[in-house]
Amino acid sequence: MAASEVVDGMQRLQVEDDSGPATSSPETLRNINIVFIGHVDAGKSTLCGHLLYLTGNLDERTLEKYEKEAKSKGRESWKFAWALDLTEQERSKGKTTDYGVASFRTRTKHITIIDAPGHKAYVPAMISGTGQADVAILVISARKGEFEAGFERGGQTREHAMLAKTAGVRQLVVVVNKMDEPTVQWSQERFRDICDKLTPFLKQIGYRPQELSWVPVSGYSGENLRERVSPSVCSWYRGGSLLEVLDALKLPPRPLDVPVRMTVVDKFREMGVCILGKVESGIVRNGDRLLLMPPRLAVQVAGITVDAEEVPAAEPGDNVKLLVKGVEEDDIHPGQVLCAEDAPVEATTVFDGQIMLVEHKSILTAGYRCVAHIQAAAVEVVFERLLAEVDRRTNQIAKKYPKFVRPGSTFIARLAVAQPVCVTPFKDFAPLGRFMLRDEGTTIGAGVVLRIPGQRIVSGVKGATDSSSSEAAMT
Ligand SMILES: Nc1nc2c(ncn2[C@@H]2O[C@H](COP(=O)(O)OP(=O)(O)OP(=O)(O)O)[C@@H](O)[C@H]2O)c(=O)[nH]1
């Protein structure tokens, strides 16, 4: 799906929700981005569509139209999913292939939802969607056999959860869906079993218990989405409905008083050159002069759109469409960063990273090549040197300069990328300090940037005079 179609979809679905329970004025609502992730057919699109319906953003007539169309294709149960699956290809196959965007309000938040594709082949699109999110909803199918298929090796449940963590999504809401299924019937045992199996894995990839919420729902019947599930249907669940849980989420403060960093996700032409992306820090104002890195091109902001509305400024967390002057469409690529002129971000072709190798056919040695996803960019990367193996429990160096590392290990390596990318050490600025590694269609690992050896910084960017040695990387 082209970026313009995503935006069209966003505009089409953007209907005011006056019927909802919002008590704050729209101006005071906190804007958050939620990505729906999970194994193929877990019910992500259905859940998104139903939430839009329940919050008044998908009217009865449109739903009836979707129902009729879906029925004519023998896919009646997909009526809600069609609110997000906009293309003919998505509808005929019942698979989301690109991320869809829509929005609704709750009592305390203005929520933008991103429906990420679940199928393995579309993980790169899923990475773009996740990179824009503050919260992830990990949708699990409770149907007999489906949870197991999604969670076992090769299923997308593990991969998506890990990608969300690496993309910096701090809050994870685990939605156990399809509780209405005849094989489940709101069984507490099934719900517990799923929670017990997932918890150790989510802990292992770095989620702390306070960053996790667990909600049983039926995305199809709508139970426990807006209203709490009735005790006559489910007698054991004492928590809130999904919308109540989302309403109660506590989110970190946003970095306003710092230089602008906006990651570029896509581009298109509409009254001029437009950039789609996410503001990570600082405030982007109409008229601002910014630098597009790499290759350090001056850009002037000529218009800002957030959630289909023109606004004078955008804040961290906002997914924005910027109308820009000074660059051509061909100058813009996913993965670039728009930054403050007086404090540009570094672009480099080499960096040292700490990597968790989760899936790999065999041992990994220096010289190994794969694809690194760094923000929205996908670039070829080569492991120049293995610098150290790290003890996962203590986070201390276990072995210097290992000849190889095994799947399951954590290690530090010097990585060289085929074209300049904007990265910063994770400890300095987390949004530009993470990356994922993929090979032959599988995510093999995830990492954080430790340092950037100064000698290979490109584009004449100042501020990095350090010429670190491999030893320095290990301290
Ligand atoms: N019984 C039941 N079926 C559901 C529920 N939610 C979704 N389904 C069905 O599960 C199938 C897949 O639903 P989708 O919403 O397309 O799943 P998805 O996760 O978006 O799939 P991808 O877009 O391919 O990743 C459809 O037939 C839905 O009708 C539910 O709560 N209960």
TrEMBL record:
Domain (Tr-type G): residue spans on this chain: 29-254
GO cellular component annotations of the record: cytoplasm
One GO process term, biological-process aspect: translation
Pfam families reported in the protein's UniProt record: GTP-eEF1A_C (PF22594), GTP_EFTU (PF00009), GTP_EFTU_D2 (PF03144)
Family matches, as InterPro entries: EFTu-like_2, GTP-eEF1A_C, P-loop_NTPase, Small_GTP-bd, T_Tr_GTP-bd_dom, TRAFAC_GTPase_members, Transl_B-barrel_sf, Transl_elong_EF1A/Init_IF2_C
Disordered as annotated region, ranges: 1-26
Reactions this protein catalyses: GTP + H2O = GDP + phosphate + H(+)
SUPFAM superfamilies associated with the record: EF-Tu/eEF-1alpha/eIF2-gamma C-terminal domain, P-loop containing nucleoside triphosphate hydrolases, Translation proteins
GO terms, molecular function: GTP binding; GTPase activity
Compartments, as annotated in UniProt: Cytoplasm
The UniProt record lists the keyword Nucleotide-binding: yes
Protein origin, superkingdom: Eukaryota
Alphabetic keyword roster: Cytoplasm, GTP-binding, Hydrolase, Nucleotide-binding, Protein biosynthesis
Entry similarity comment: Belongs to the TRAFAC class translation factor GTPase superfamily. Classic translation factor GTPase family. EF-Tu/EF-1A subfamily.
PANTHER family reported for this sequence: TRANSLATION FACTOR
UniProt-recorded name of the protein: Eukaryotic peptide chain release factor gtp-binding subunit
